[in-house]
User: Fold this.
Amino acid sequence: MPGSRIFLSIVAAGLAVSAVSGEPAKTKPRDQGVRSISGTVRGPGNAIVPGAVVKLKDLKTLNVRSYIVQDDGKYQFQNLPDRVDYEVRASAASGLVSKTKTISLFDSRPRVVINLKLEPAKK
Assistant:
């Protein structure tokens, strides 16, 4: 039928124009979210350790951020990209250290709570 040939020609011409234009396919980019990591630093006997230093390491860029624990024993890192693995660890001037904890990029929680326990450093 002549009408269907015209329709197919128009559709084919439209496809050819969009293919030649070189425009990328319209896809919605996945929004990158942010997260926070917080917790409390405690020492032997479950005592709060003010003045301890909590270090957060971005395992993608290897940048390290530090937070000095206040009198309440709490620390917090905010506005962290959620598509990154992180390591968090605490230490005190008295030689106490915590185990290193890892937060995976696959952990989808927007607020991650990691409490750290300081112990004597192993030699």
